[in-house]
Amino acid sequence: MSRIVASRSGPGVAYAAFDAHRDGDFEPYVFRTADFGETWTPLGPGLPSGSVNSMAEHPDNPNVLFVGTEHGLFVSTNAGADWARLSHLPT
């Protein structure tokens, strides 16, 4: 596990990222739990290949998530179902 972020939206909600780049695996492994870690939902689909270096949840809107990878900064406005790259920012 490379990152873990507790949500402010309610008890039991958290995000986790796993990094396997040392094994040659550059997939963006990002997951969300809403039940204290009993189950995890993958949020990585839609993100390009690249290790996740940072994660954040918007403090006022838990549907807005930010993920920083080796290829840029990405935002989701629907709790990780879809991702868009924030352009004009350095990697």
Entry summary:
The protein is mainly beta.
Protein architecture, described:
The protein is an all-beta fold. It has no helices and eight strands. It has strands spanning 3-6, 14-20, 25-33, 41-42, 52-57, 65-69, 72-76, 84-85. Strands 1-2-3-4 form a four-stranded antiparallel β-sheet, with no helix packed on it. Strands 5-6-7-8 form a four-stranded antiparallel β-sheet, with no helix packed on it. The model has no long low-confidence stretch (mean pLDDT 90).
Strand order of the largest sheet: 1-2-3-4
Total number of β-strand segments? 8
How much of the sequence is in beta strands?
35-45%
| N-to-C series of helices and strands | EEEEEEEE
Distance between the termini: 22 Å
Query: Mind telling me the C-alpha Rg?
Result: 12 Å
SS summary, helix count: 0
The helix/strand class is mainly beta
Helix content: under 10%
Characterize the largest beta sheet: strand count, sense, and whether it forms a barrel.
Answer: 4 strands, antiparallel
**Unreliable spans:** none
Report the mean per-residue pLDDT as an integer: 90
Report the principal-axis shape: globular
